[in-house]
């Protein structure tokens, strides 16, 4: 196929290519850019077109592949947009260090609250916390199963009240 024939076929399909580009991008400017890139690649690779095959399908395939590659490239870029005033989050990078001091303090206070419970409810509660089953606790302490369950319930309720007094409603769901 001669250069003149190739160019005339490309020009005759430009309207369809523009429409297809707009359907892919849903943006006029992006569609123009996609058409331009497609025309450029078609012209630079005209020697790869085989006469006797569907020229329109060849152009549409080029356009679709360019669109897919650009989409994947944009998705891979993984752009981070920081809307804070001082761009703290962008500048902080991966250098943030996790600090468990707050949770360590809370656990220390919680253990202090557990220690302040009466032994009759503290011992079954601690055994349950350590993973013992209700029946195992009942056998170990030589108590009825119902008594063990109720003492663990009373320990939980007492701890919940202590936590509410010290921290308010905010921490109740997290601590118990």
Note down, in words, how this protein is organized:
There is one protein chain. The chain has helices at 3-12, 14-25, 28-44, 55-77, 88-92, 101-115, 119-129, 134-141, 145-167, 172-175. With 176 residues, it is an all-alpha fold. The protein has two domains: 3-77, Orthogonal Bundle (Rna Polymerase Sigma Factor, Chain: A), CATH 1.10.1740; 101-175, Orthogonal Bundle (Arc Repressor Mutant, subunit A). Helix 2 packs parallel to helix 4 (55-77), helix 3 (28-44) packs across helix 4 and helix 8 packs across helix 9 (145-167). The chain is rod-shaped and about 100 Å long. The protein starts with a helix and ends with a helix. Keywords: Sigma factor, Transcription, Transcription regulation. This is RNA polymerase sigma factor.
Span between termini: 79 Å
**CATH top-level class of the largest domain:** Mainly Alpha
Q: Tell me which CATH architecture of the largest domain applies here.
A: Orthogonal Bundle
Q: Please, what is the CATH homologous superfamily of the largest domain? A: RNA polymerase sigma factor, region 2, helix turn helix motif
Share of helical residues: over 70%
Output the number of helix runs: 10
Strand content: under 5%
The whole-angstrom Rg is 35 Å
Q: What letter string, H or E per element, gives the SSE order?
A: HHHHHHHHHH
What's the shape?
A: rod-shaped
Residue ranges: pLDDT <50 for 5 or more in a row? none
Q: Can you count the beta strands? A: 0
Major sheet characteristics: none
CATH topology type of the largest domain: Rna Polymerase Sigma Factor, Chain: A
How does the helix and strand content classify structurally? mainly alpha
* Domains (count): 2
> What is the overall pLDDT average?
84
InterPro entries: RNA_pol_sigma-70-like, RNA_pol_sigma-70_dom, RNA_pol_sigma70_r2, RNA_pol_sigma70_r4_t2, RNA_pol_sigma_r2, RNA_pol_sigma_r3/r4-like, WH-like_DNA-bd_sf
Domain RNA polymerase sigma-70 region: 13-75
Organism: Portibacter lacus
GO biological process, one term: DNA-templated transcription initiation
